[in-house]
């Protein structure tokens, strides 16, 4: 027996047909029957007199949306006392103003005092209005609502329990949303020291235990408890070290310090946790979240049901490994230790990783074979993604060569002085390179990305979180194991972490206190989704790779077909593959043009005609739907332009600022193209496929950036560094440099220390 409020009830729940609670947030989308508990702080206004109508309307909209999806929704609500208080205050003021106007004149109105309102009377006056408001709001979504008032005694009379259970089941069967509240008009007298100014609140804390009890009795799948805090913290919210607990497990309450209660209500977080654990014991999953925050309250309920990382999720299943938050902290600490190593020590780690890739070649290829077989059996991956997923001996050899290039070029990357200034006598300023911090790299299909990015992070002294696609799980696992083995030679194993939890990408993008930069490697849709989801974290990358090749009138016949074939056909799934071929109008119906078309047909490239190109042809290929298309396959668009100027304008209008090429023997035309095309990479008489960190001599790349700040084009070690300023003085103060001070600014540029060129 446990005691909730002042009345004991049996803690063993009734048997549940659907078994245990959900183990992971991602499973919450399968919740069929849901109870939403609205705390007093959520329902009432900030002045604690009346309801927060906008917030309530948003909650009703979300509940209605879920109800119309076929779920069974129930609401346990507070608010009757606050609504009643508003009505009674209005009546008292109106009554007093009339009496005083008749007997004392208008001058006395400002001195009127409002008496302390009795809570039961407030509840009685507010219940009907609260319910009428709910009915009006739900009617907007063609949903019927029904009110049920209960007390704790209703759960201890077996007949009343059965009646309540039957009523609720019947309402749910008829697609009606039950709205349940404690009957505060008839409950026992309240305890003193209420939180509501001017009114005693009766048993508001019972709504926490009521919601939990109701959830268990009705065998619900999910209980959502909305309050005025983000969830459960490991120490009182607002304190310096307070951290939101993402997942709370039974037995963890000893490590939590509870603070004060919310501004209204008597439950407090401790009561909510106890109620949540009791519901969890009964087989109901629980999430405690903020229902008052203006930025999230409009979608907090639907976000929870979709499995997003909102509030605190209560789970009975503790994961075997660390949480992603713990991994982020480990990566930051490991990255700082990594940055403090000597350059040759970081290089030694990368050399060791390169050796491990060749020494364990057979194990890596065996793991990759498992991934390929599973992907082919499931049939979910398109052919370009299957090609990216595949590893080979030659790929591993190229990886090892690239890693050794990174190691050789990393000797003076971190801590390099890029500017020295003498501010004044004995006051010298330096600008030096430092790591960005913690990188989150999200990649699809390509397991070879893992050692490449890891080596670049090691060389630049950054901590690293890696989130690979599940289609490459076996390959990623062994490659990460080898990476950590290499890191272990200098005790920095934790600097590179592979996220294996069920964290959604959108949830990872919200960890702005743990992650400093997000780098997506994958489809344009993945990049766009991450750019949209990132909350306060910069994203480096490109959403599309719409690369152009412009064939000028002065192009060499020998060069044209070679460059076009390589740009389009060597690896059509790559982001640096040709997608649009621009042909000068004067080349139409020439032998060179015929050679281009014949070569594309031999290579089985499907041609789409641009609008101008189609207008020149009697029987043209299928006209392109959009000139902003990244095909990622053996397809391309051909369009006609009248000049190099028009080619540049076309690229600026339809391109993605990735990589664009001109083929010409006219140096003046080529220089015009190189100077005027505003893309990350602009080439003359060279394949688009050269846009690559390895081919640029960077060893590897974390991606190709088309943004205009920090890093652009293939991003190697330099793009993963930022700077800090070091000022060395000797008792210098700013007042010495005032008009009548003793010192003068010099601002002299000083020579830089000689770089290590080995």
UniProtKB/TrEMBL annotation:
Molecular function (Gene Ontology), one example: glutamate-5-semialdehyde dehydrogenase activity
Pathways per UniProt: Amino-acid biosynthesis; L-proline biosynthesis; L-glutamate 5-semialdehyde from L-glutamate: step 2/2; Amino-acid biosynthesis; L-proline biosynthesis; L-glutamate 5-semialdehyde from L-glutamate: step 1/2
Signal peptide as annotated in the record: none
Family: In the N-terminal section; belongs to the glutamate 5-kinase family. In the C-terminal section; belongs to the gamma-glutamyl phosphate reductase family.
Reported function: Bifunctional enzyme that converts glutamate to glutamate 5-semialdehyde, an intermediate in the biosynthesis of proline, ornithine and arginine.
Subunit structure: Can form homodimers/multimers.
Protein name in the entry: Delta-1-pyrroline-5-carboxylate synthase
Organism: Aramus guarauna (Limpkin)
């Amino acid at each position: 027996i446990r005691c909730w409020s002042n009345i004991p009830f049996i803690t063993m729940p009734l048997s549940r047909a659907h078994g245990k609670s959900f183990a992971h947030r991602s499973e919450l989308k399968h919740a069929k029957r849901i109870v939403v508990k609205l705390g007093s702080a959520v329902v009432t206004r900030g002045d604690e007199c009346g309801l927060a109508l906008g917030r309530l309307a948003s909650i009703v909209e979300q509940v209605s949306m879920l109800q119309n999806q076929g779920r069974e929704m129930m609401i346990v609500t507070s608010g009757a006392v606050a609504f009643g208080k508003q009505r009674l205050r209005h009546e008292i003021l109106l009554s007093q103003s009339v009496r005083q106007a008749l007997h004392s004149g208008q001058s006395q109105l400002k001195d009127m005092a409002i008496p302390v309102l009795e809570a039961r009377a407030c509840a009685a006056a507010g219940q009907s209005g609260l319910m009428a408001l709910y009915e009006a709001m739900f009617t907007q979504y063609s949903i019927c609502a029904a009110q049920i008032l209960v007390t704790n005694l209703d759960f201890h009379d077996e007949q009343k329990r059965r009646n309540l259970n039957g009523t609720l089941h019947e309402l749910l069967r008829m697609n009606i949303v039950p709205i349940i509240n404690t009957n505060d008009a008839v409950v026992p007298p309240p305890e003193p020291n209420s939180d509501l100014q001017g009114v005693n609140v009766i048993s508001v804390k019972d709504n926490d235990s009521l919601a939990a009890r109701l959830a268990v009795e009705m065998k619900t799948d999910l209980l959502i408890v909305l309050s005025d805090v983000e969830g459960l913290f490991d120490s009182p919210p607002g304190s310096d070290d307070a951290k939101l607990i993402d997942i709370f497990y039974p037995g963890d309450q000893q490590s939590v310090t509870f603070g004060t209660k919310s501004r209204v209500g008597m439950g407090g977080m401790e009561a909510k946790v106890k109620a949540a654990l009791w519901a969890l014991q009964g087989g109901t999953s629980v999430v405690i979240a903020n229902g008052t925050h203006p930025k999230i309250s409009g979608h907090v309920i639907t976000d929870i049901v979709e499995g997003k990382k909102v509030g605190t999720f209560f789970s009975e299943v503790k994961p075997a490994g660390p949480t992603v938050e713990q991994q982020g902290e480990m990566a930051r600490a490991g990255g700082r230790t990594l940055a403090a190593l000597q350059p040759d020590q970081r290089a030694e780690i990368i050399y060791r990783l390169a050796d491990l890739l060749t020494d364990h070649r057979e194990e890596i290829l065996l793991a990759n074979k498992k991934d390929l077989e599973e992907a082919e059996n499931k049939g979910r991956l398109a052919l370009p993604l299957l090609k990216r997923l595949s590893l080979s001996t030659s790929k591993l050899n190229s990886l090892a060569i690239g890693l050794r290039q990174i190691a050789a070029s990393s000797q003076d990357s971190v801590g390099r002085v890029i500017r020295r200034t003498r501010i004044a006598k004995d006051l010298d300023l330096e600008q030096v390179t430092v790591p960005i911090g913690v990188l989150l790299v999200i990649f699809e299909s390509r397991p070879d990305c893992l050692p490449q990015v890891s080596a670049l992070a090691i060389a630049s002294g950054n901590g690293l979180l890696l989130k690979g696609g599940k289609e490459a799980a076996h390959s990623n696992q062994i490659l990460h194991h080898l990476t950590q083995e290499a890191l272990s030679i200098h005790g920095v194993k934790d600097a590179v972490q592979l996220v294996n939890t069920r964290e959604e990408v959108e949830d990872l993008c919200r960890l702005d206190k743990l992650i400093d930069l997000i780098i997506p490697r994958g489809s344009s849709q993945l990049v766009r989704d991450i750019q949209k989801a990132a909350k306060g974290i910069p994203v480096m990358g490109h959403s599309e790779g719409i690369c152009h090749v412009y064939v000028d009138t002065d192009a060499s016949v020998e060069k044209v077909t070679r460059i076009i074939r390589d740009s389009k056909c060597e690896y059509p799934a790559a982001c640096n593959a040709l997608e649009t071929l621009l042909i000068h109008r004067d080349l139409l119906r020439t032998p060179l043009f015929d050679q281009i078309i014949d070569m594309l047909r031999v290579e089985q490239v499907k041609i789409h005609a641009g609008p101008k190109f189609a207008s020149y042809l009697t029987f043209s290929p299928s006209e392109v739907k959009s000139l902003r298309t990244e095909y990622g396959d053996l397809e391309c668009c051909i369009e006609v332009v009248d000049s190099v100027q028009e080619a540049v304008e076309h690229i600026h209008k339809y391109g993605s600022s990735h990589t664009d090429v001109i083929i010409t023997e006219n140096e003046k035309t080529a220089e015009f193209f190189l100077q005027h095309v505003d893309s990350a990479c602009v080439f003359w008489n060279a394949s688009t496929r050269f846009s690559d960190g390895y081919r640029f001599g960077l060893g590897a790349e974390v991606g190709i950036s088309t943004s205009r700040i920090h890093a652009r084009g293939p991003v190697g070690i330099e793009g993963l560094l930022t700077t800090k300023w070091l000022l060395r003085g000797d008792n210098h103060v700013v007042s010495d440099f005032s008009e009548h001070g003793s010192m003068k600014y010099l601002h002299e540029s000083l020579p830089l220390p000689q770089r290590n060129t080995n």
